[in-house]
């Protein structure tokens, strides 16, 4: 009988947490410049030059910005602008700036855009960093994941 009561209580608790209107995890009240701080259980403003992540529970550098300390542990909130005048964009891992070929540079979005059947490469197969992004066409019967274009 005790196990049944524990299971019932657990299911009741789960149903409350999973119901959007009752959940303590509700990001809909945060503004577009805020994220939901899961430790403090409230909205917090992202540091300058950063925006909320897609899941709205942390921040990331805004388009055209890199985070030089990102590879050294956790993100510290410092974002530096890449030189957009010379077509530089953040690397895929956001730790450095890489030059984008003029034909692929979108100045409005501050991104390097490859054709729909290609991916942007900023690291060679041996792991070394490229100084210029290369758009590489996918093989037959394959296509790039949206985040790799």
Q: Give Rg in angstroms.
A: 21 Å
Please state the average pLDDT score: 80
Amino-to-carboxy terminus distance: 56 Å
Principal-axis shape equals globular
Low-confidence stretches: 1-23
**Spatial sequence of strands, sheet with the most strands:** 1-2
Helix/strand order: HEEEEEEEEEEEE
Helix content: 10-25%
The biggest beta sheet reads: 2 strands, antiparallel
Features:
149 residues; mainly beta; two-stranded antiparallel ribbon; disordered N terminus
Give a description of the structure.
The chain has 149 residues and is mostly beta strands. Helix content is 11%, strand content 29%. It has a two-stranded antiparallel ribbon with strand order 1-2. It has a two-stranded antiparallel sheet with strand order 3-4. Strands 5-6 form a two-stranded antiparallel sheet. Strand 3 and strand 4 form a beta hairpin. The longest helix is centred in the first third of the chain and has 17 residues, at 2-18. Residues 1-23 have low confidence and may be disordered.
């Amino acid at each position: 009988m005790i196990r049944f009561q524990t299971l019932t209580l657990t299911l009741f608790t789960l149903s409350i947490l999973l119901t959007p209107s009752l959940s303590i995890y509700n990001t809909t009240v945060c503004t577009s410049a805020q994220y939901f701080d899961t430790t403090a259980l409230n909205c917090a403003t992202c540091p300058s030059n950063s925006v909320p992540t897609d899941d709205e529970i942390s921040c990331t550098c805004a388009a055209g910005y890199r985070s030089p300390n990102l590879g050294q542990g956790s993100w510290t909130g410092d974002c530096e602008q890449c030189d957009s005048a010379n077509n530089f964009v953040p690397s895929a891992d956001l730790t450095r700036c890489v030059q984008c070929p003029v034909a692929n540079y979108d100045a409005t979005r501050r991104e390097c855009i490859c054709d729909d059947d290609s991916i942007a490469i900023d690291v060679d197969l041996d792991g070394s960093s490229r100084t210029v992004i290369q758009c590489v066409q996918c093989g037959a019967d394959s296509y790039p994941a949206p985040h790799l274009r």
